[in-house]
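Lecture notes, continued. The same structure-token format from the folding unit now serves as the input rather than the output. Read the line below as a description of shape only.
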């Protein structure tokens, strides 16, 4: 699959290509005030605003639909800036095109559904409009590529992928886990496809947007999509992550822009490889945290059955099986044995703590309060 560069969209070669605007179009006043300040402070290449908002729970702000498209048509005219909105079905496509929207984007909750993506692709057959495809909610690279392929087959060659992170159950400091190795793999498989980083939806909070934007640029992404609102705290959706236009300007001026333009030099490769290691280490720590939860349950059972913490047979079995697994996976047996020792020591320490805690409670030395 071959794609046209971002410069073919509106003739701009700005680096990074900047898409800015509120999460949702809420009122004409909100759009007018936000876009006029964005134009003055950051001059984005494209203004974003959701007019149909896919919300997790009903009764949340679901967008103003066609009315918002009318506001956006006026804003586009007034500020001479192109507009992008999210579309999730053929009716949205028809209305967006009717109101002169310049670029369409497909949201994470739509990319997961091949039926919806195909319907959108069919509605776009023969239409010349750039389309951006956000990654699916979960970390499935093939599904992301599949959606891009469906649109490409419908004749869309001005495309971009938007990396907005992946949902992950359990603890994360981010709203959506970036899992950088996925967009890197996307770049490897589709080298001409522009990739835009959406740090707002990865971060989920204002304070983390800058560092994620920088990482996206360090990895050689072509653009940024960042949410901005003239009154972020009063936003009807994604209030915690939206930035004032002037704060966005400060953030952008602090970013280090490295020249990379499609060249994979060794410095770039190192950043990518380190990122992959960071992802793996985080996975290992997550696994350790799950291991800890199970150890606490084991301690509870052992205490109930009056069993000792250390069970020689189990320990021998652990060493034997892990050694065999190490051989199969091609990693050093000694390294794995040392690791098992460490894990075992920690397990014993935790079981000790937990059993003594339970004993204290039973003896009335402590209460569960
Ligand atoms: C959005 O861009 O406001 C949005 C709904 O994003 P996503 O599809 O990434 O959740
Ligand atoms: Mn949003």
């Amino acid at each position: 699959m071959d794609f046209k560069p971002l410069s073919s969209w509106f003739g701009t070669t700005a680096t990074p290509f900047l898409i800015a605007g509120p999460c949702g179009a809420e009122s004409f006043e909100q759009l007018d005030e936000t876009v006029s300040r964005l134009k003055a402070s950051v001059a984005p290449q494209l203004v974003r605003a959701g007019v149909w908002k896919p919300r997790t729970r009903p009764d949340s702000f679901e967008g103003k639909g066609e009315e918002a498209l009318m506001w956006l048509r006026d804003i586009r005219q007034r500020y001479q800036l192109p507009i992008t909105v999210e579309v999730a079905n053929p009716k949205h496509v028809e209305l967006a095109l009717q109101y002169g929207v310049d670029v369409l984007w497909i949201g994470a909750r739509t990319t997961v559904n091949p039926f919806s993506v195909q319907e959108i692709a069919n509605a776009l057959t023969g239409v010349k409009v750039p389309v951006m495809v956000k990654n699916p909610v979960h970390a499935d690279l093939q599904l992301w590529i599949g959606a891009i392929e469906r649109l490409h087959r419908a004749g869309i060659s001005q495309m971009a992928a938007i990396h907005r992170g992946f949902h992950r159950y359990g603890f994360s400091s981010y709203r959506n886990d970036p899992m950088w190795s996925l967009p890197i793999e996307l770049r490897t498989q589709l080298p001409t496809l522009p990739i835009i980083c959406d740090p707002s939806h990865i971060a989920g909070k204002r304070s983390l947007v800058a560092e994620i934007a920088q990482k996206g640029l360090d990895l050689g992404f072509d653009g940024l999509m960042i949410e901005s609102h003239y009154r972020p705290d009063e936003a009807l959706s994604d209030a915690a992550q939206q930035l004032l236009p002037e704060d966005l300007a400060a953030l952008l001026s602090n970013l280090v822009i490295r020249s990379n333009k499609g060249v994979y030099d060794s410095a770039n490769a190192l950043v990518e490889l380190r990122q992959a290691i960071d992802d793996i280490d985080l996975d290992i720590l997550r696994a350790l945290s799950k291991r800890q939860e199970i150890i606490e349950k084991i301690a509870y059972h052992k205490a109930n059955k009056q069993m000792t913490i250390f069970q020689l047979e189990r320990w021998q079995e652990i060493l034997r099986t892990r050694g065999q697994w190490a051989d199969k996976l091609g990693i050093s047996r000694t390294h794995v044995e040392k690791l098992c020792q460490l894990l075992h020591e920690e397990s014993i320490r935790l079981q000790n703590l937990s059993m003594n805690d339970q004993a204290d409670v039973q003896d009335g030395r402590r209460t569960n309060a």
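Point for the exam: The longest strand covers residues 17-21.
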